[in-house]
């Protein structure tokens, strides 16, 4: 795969712009094929040797190869194009060989070689520090603004409810949420906290703050950074597969996503910040890449950094550095070498340490809902755990279908033309319905924390209102107890919250605000799990003599932990939506710190995936990739149809002949005409139209930039100048314009297969090598070409989908 056909000097000369809007950060050249000197002057003597672009050797003009000197833009990519992984890896090998060979020549070159080797680790350190700091700021801000909807702290408006009451001497443990320093809006405005008027005032202020936050979020996104909306994970998966989306990981996107993520979460919408934090971390990685030449100028190397940044995003979102690395490997990365694994681990470690140093939740933990369970689980409890897995799989498949149907409706109807109105309406409905129910009024993270909680004697939650008459204060383990009235009230409220969360999340995910799906999915599963856990607990208490409880659940023993059921349910629903398995179990394990609960989590996660896959094969991110038409070849899908390369290649029998360049028989005008008349991103180079023997492949962008550069720098290049892709240029007739040698931009080793190659092999080649195109030959003669777009269209046709829905330049 070592491609010696690319000129090393050209790769070292790729120029990067500093534009905030570019993901690729390349300033594209504006090409002007019009030239007032297309007709050469008759009195010019081209053989005299006066041409600065030519040297005379033994009386024969020797061409200057344009790629002997830097040509800005050659080797770069346009927006909405796919990178050539083979070419990018070849570039990096050439660069590395050059640095290694020079390191033996001088001490300075040796120091430069050491700095180059160390730059990757330094970049990981910077990404971890920056992402951890941003995540800490987002957590603190979101917590404060969420509490701002209910009241304000008189000691300082910047304190949230919990921090405001920490310093109060009048706060009791039983009523630790009540302190004179914290005032509700009703108390501030009408002077009382009791009665219907106070309730209505708090209700109105809650709705108004929610509408204000969501309006600011959607307005900022629409005005400054449209790419800041949504989760970001489908687009990051597509970018990591080699697709170019300029601006998606730029500075403006980072700034606006960070601000609007806080606003969107604080508005009370059914969304989370975990998915967007992956986008934020990848923006940090992309921006910091510009500090290091080898990452700034090589798209494949940059994608290794972005894979590590995705791991950092999950690390700071869940406080799960190992789970973050596995998430990047299992869910988002397209190319994940062992070196990237080590660097991802280091970056996730630095990010988790930074977040721990900030301590955004004040509990010395990395997440708000860290819990520890002390009661071991019994083998028979695998049955309800598997039931939760089945529920998670069914809900995940239902959610994907419903959400994709709603998003498709948004794209194809008038709804998509009014994103601000849609966000405000959904926010208003969410706030109006959520406020009366204490479990939907609170933030989703706090709800999950309460559902995961293992009840103790001093817990004031309604979920922990058990009959403690027979429990001594000194007992370390609380036995199963009969539920009090508040527990049954809480179960009804949770049932209503479950239905509300299931429905409202469908329309919320995909709106034009930053919206993550991890936390809402976990909330649905946690509610279902807690309800099942309480039911099992009461069943064990009142019917401990049943066969299923006899022998392991005696009267007075602590048998069932409802919080564990909530945790397993959360994992099941998140797995059903995203289809994660290994990384999901590790993330949930790191959340709870309990090694002994890995088996229930594994059982629920695998059951959830099996059930969801039986209903629909796609996870939520793959479904959104297909909905948006991104050119992504899913590595998990099997290609089982018996077609050959000749069935998919272009040109087809009814198409015009394949547009090719000849190695020595075309003029500049001929090449420019072909570029103008076609939209192809590259052209095969053949010996002649008659032989069709393949010589190489040249990209359209490199061709246009090189011709434009030659007109500016090489004297005498006009429309009648001959273009050569050969190594040696034959002697030119007297008084003819100087020829243009472009061999340096040609790929001398394009990937080829024969026309009888099975398409499943071709698809595997495209997936594993990251090809942009593959040339089809028969007995050495060029027959046609298969591009990544052709592969995607063929796969879509086989799946009875619209092949023209794929987004490609």
Automatic annotation (TrEMBL):
Keyword Lyase: no
Protein's membrane topology: Multi-pass membrane protein
SUPFAM superfamilies associated with the record: CBS-domain pair (SSF54631), Clc chloride channel (SSF81340)
Keyword presence, Membrane: yes
Transmembrane segment boundaries: 120-140, 203-225, 245-265, 277-293, 305-329, 382-402, 414-435, 490-510, 517-536, 564-589
Lineage, highest ranks first: Eukaryota, Metazoa, Chordata, Craniata, Vertebrata
Family according to the record: Belongs to the chloride channel (TC 2.A.49) family.
Any single GO CC term annotated in Swiss-Prot or TrEMBL for this entry: early endosome
Family matches, as InterPro entries: CBS_dom, CBS_dom_sf, Cl-channel_core, ClC
Localization (cell): Endosome membrane; Membrane
Name of the protein this chain belongs to: Chloride channel protein
Domain CBS, residue spans: 649-713, 746-803
Pfam families: CBS (PF00571), Voltage_CLC (PF00654)
One GO molecular-function entry: voltage-gated chloride channel activity
Signal peptide limits: none
Domain of life: Eukaryota
Keywords in alphabetical order: Antiport, ATP-binding, CBS domain, Chloride, Endosome, Ion transport, Membrane, Nucleotide-binding, Repeat, Transmembrane, Transmembrane helix, Transport
């Amino acid at each position: 795969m070592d491609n010696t056909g690319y000129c090393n000097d050209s790769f070292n000369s790729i120029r990067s712009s500093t534009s905030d809007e570019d993901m690729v950060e390349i300033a594209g050249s504006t090409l002007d094929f019009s030239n007032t000197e297309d007709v050469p002057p008759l009195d010019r003597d081209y053989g005299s040797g006066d041409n600065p672009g030519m040297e005379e050797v033994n009386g024969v003009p020797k061409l200057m190869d344009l790629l002997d000197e830097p040509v800005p833009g050659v080797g770069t990519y346009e927006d909405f194009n796919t990178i050539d992984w083979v070419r990018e890896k070849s570039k990096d090998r050439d660069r590395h060989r050059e640095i290694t060979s020079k390191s033996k020549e001088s001490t300075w070159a040796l120091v430069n070689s050491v700095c180059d080797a160390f730059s990757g680790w330094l970049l990981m350190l910077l990404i971890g520090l920056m992402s951890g700091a941003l995540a800490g700021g987002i957590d603190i801000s979101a917590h404060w603004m969420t509490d701002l909807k209910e009241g304000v702290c008189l000691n300082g408006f910047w304190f949230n409810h919990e921090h405001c009451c920490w310093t109060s001497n009048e706060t009791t443990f039983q009523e630790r949420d009540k302190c004179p320093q914290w005032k509700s809006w009703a108390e501030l405005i009408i002077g009382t906290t009791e009665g219907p008027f106070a309730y209505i005032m708090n209700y109105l202020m809650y709705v108004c703050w929610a509408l204000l936050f969501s309006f600011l979020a959607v307005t900022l996104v629409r005005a400054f950074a449209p790419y800041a909306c949504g989760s970001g994970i489908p687009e990051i998966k597509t970018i990591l597969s080699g697709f170019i989306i300029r601006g998606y990981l730029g500075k403006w996107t980072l700034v606006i996503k960070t601000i609007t993520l806080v606003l969107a979460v604080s508005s009370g919408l059914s969304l989370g910040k975990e998915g967007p934090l992956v986008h934020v971390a990848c923006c940090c990685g992309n921006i910091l890449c510009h500090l290091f030449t080898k990452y700034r100028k090589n798209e494949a190397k940059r994608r290794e950094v972005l894979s590590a940044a995705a791991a950092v995003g999950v690390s700071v979102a869940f406080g799960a550095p190992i789970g973050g690395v596995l998430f990047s490997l299992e869910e988002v990365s397209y190319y994940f070498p062992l070196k990237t694994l080590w660097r991802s681990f280091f970056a996730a470690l630095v990010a988790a340490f930074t977040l721990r140093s900030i301590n955004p939740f004040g509990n010395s933990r990395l997440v708000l809902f860290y819990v520890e369970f002390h009661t071991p689980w019994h083998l028979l409890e695998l049955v309800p755990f598997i039931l939760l897995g089945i529920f998670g799989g069914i809900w995940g498949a239902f959610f994907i279908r419903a959400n994709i149907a709603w998003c498709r409706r948004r794209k194809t109807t008038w709804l998509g033309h009014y994103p601000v109105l849609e966000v405000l309406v959904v926010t208003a409905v969410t706030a109006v319905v959520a406020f009366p129910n204490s479990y939907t009024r609170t933030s989703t993270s706090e709800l999950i924390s309460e559902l995961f909680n293992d009840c103790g004697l001093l817990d004031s939650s309604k979920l922990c209102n058990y009959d403690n008459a027979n429990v001594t204060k000194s007992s370390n383990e609380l036995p199963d107890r009969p539920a009090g009235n508040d527990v049954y009230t809480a179960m009804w409220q949770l049932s209503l919250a479950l239905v509300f969360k299931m429905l409202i999340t469908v329309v919320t995910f995909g709106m034009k605000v930053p919206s993550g799906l991890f936390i809402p999915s976990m909330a649905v599963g946690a509610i279902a799990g807690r309800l099942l856990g309480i039911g099992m607990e009461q069943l064990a208490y009142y019917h401990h003599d049943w066969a299923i409880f006899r022998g392991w659940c005696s009267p007075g023993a602590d048998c069932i932990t409802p919080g564990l059921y909530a945790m397993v349910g959360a994992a099941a629903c998140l797995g059903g939506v995203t289809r994660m398995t290994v990384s999901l179990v590790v993330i949930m394990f790191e959340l709870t710190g309990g090694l002994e609960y890995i088996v229930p989590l594994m059982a629920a996660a695998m059951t959830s995936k099996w059930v969801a896959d039986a209903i629909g094969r796609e996870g939520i991110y793959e479904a959104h990739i297909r909905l948006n038409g991104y050119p992504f070849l899913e590595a998990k899908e099997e290609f089982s149809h018996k077609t050959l390369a000749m069935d998919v290649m272009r040109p087809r029998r009814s198409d015009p002949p394949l547009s090719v360049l000849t190695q020595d028989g075309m003029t500049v005008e001929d090449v420019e005409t072909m570029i103008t008349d076609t939209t192809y991103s590259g052209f095969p180079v053949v010996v002649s139209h008659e032989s069709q023997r393949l010589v190489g492949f040249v990209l359209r962008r490199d061709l246009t930039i090189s011709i434009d550069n030659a007109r500016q720098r090489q004297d005498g290049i006009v429309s009648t100048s001959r273009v050569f892709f050969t190594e040696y240029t034959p002697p030119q007739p007297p008084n003819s314009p100087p020829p243009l040698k472009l061999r340096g931009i040609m790929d001398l080793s394009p990937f080829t297969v024969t026309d009888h190659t099975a398409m499943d092999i071709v698809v595997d080649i495209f997936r594993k090598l990251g090809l942009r195109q593959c040339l089809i030959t028969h007995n050495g003669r060029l027959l046609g070409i298969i591009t990544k777009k052709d592969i995607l269209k063929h796969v879509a046709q086989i799946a009875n989908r619209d092949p023209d829905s794929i987004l490609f330049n």
